[in-house]
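I am writing to request your help with a piece of structural work I have in hand. Here, with my thanks, is the record as I have it:
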Amino acid sequence: MAPPMRSEYFLLILLILCGLVPVVSGAGAVGTGAAGQEYSANITLFRPASDSVPSTQVNAIINGLQGEVLLGTPLGLSSYDGTWSTRHIDRSNLSEGLLDNFVTALAYDSSGHLWIGYAGGIQIYDGRTYQLITDQQLLKSLQIRALQRWNDGMWIATGNSGLSRYYNETWTWYAPYSPGGPGFYEADSMTLDSAADTLLVGTLKEGLWAVSEANNTIVFTRIQNRDDPYGLLGHVRKDPLGGAYFFNETDVAHYSQAGGFTPVLSSGDFYGGPYIIDDVAAGPGGAVYVATENGIYVWQNGAVTRHLGTFEGFSSAAHNVKMVFVDARGRLWFSTMDVVGYYTGDISTAPPISVETMTPTPTPVLPTSIPTTGPVVTATPAPSPSFIDNIRTFLGGIFGFLPHSR
């Protein structure tokens, strides 16, 4: 009787039969859209480390003034311009460092000053020092949920205290359910409808709102009640073409002042779904990128046209995407439980996908002077998989029974 085949030999035979397919961590082959078109992409991945992004939880992400991207995380404020730098709390001098490592919101004002929101107030960075706003005579709640510039003013969503505005060196509180004020306590998110010069506000339980200005008077208008068809789409994201996208875990709709609400998609439209919707980002060309528990789906021209998943560079074990954002360079940023990264690509017949895992050298960018005191937050990067583990990962996705080496 022939001796039983050892698993190593079996693995080698399967590898040969598969044509010696190269396996790169997170890599895949050329993808195919719903319409059958081939496309290629570059995906760059960053794992948390002292010289990389400090955390994969991204609470806020915006474009910087010099082409960089700023990310607010629970472990500091990070800047990426090809290399990473991260700013942390300086407890000995809050005018030279963050108020807290846990950043909740980011926005630039009309003067180019960076507003940084926390659970305990706001800092305004002018390029040299940080101005601290923690006076509850100015902010009725210090829990900063969202920041949004609107012309020369800054709007702040705070805790369960409605909205505040800073304009012409004056703070104004718009108290919940006050006469002519907002009919809500807690704003989830805000964005600007630049086509209508209107501030749009999403709430999770108190409807959807539009804020306009007429004759120097701020007007709050409820555009959906909680019980209306779109009233529970409590998150809102900007549409660069005008209007905004409101969404929740199951549905996405577009809103414009002229056309009202138009349904876009639901979780049942994802092939292989339904999958929970975690975030939405709109590109300048009309594409909408939807972050789900099964990667990113791309909606364009009235249909889901692409799916970015395991074969587009996401780990088969971690393609639950929590955040998406299109930066000024057209890169699609995303975060999962394991990595932060960005995707660049278009519909083409270009060569197969390549995947880079960056290990950048830190070059401090924000602010220009980094204090030498204060804690340094580090994270140990996950060990790179061995060659055998890569092979097992690839074959395990096909046969489902090969264990990882230990």
DSSP finds two helices and 30 strands in the chain. The first helix runs from residue 7 to 17.
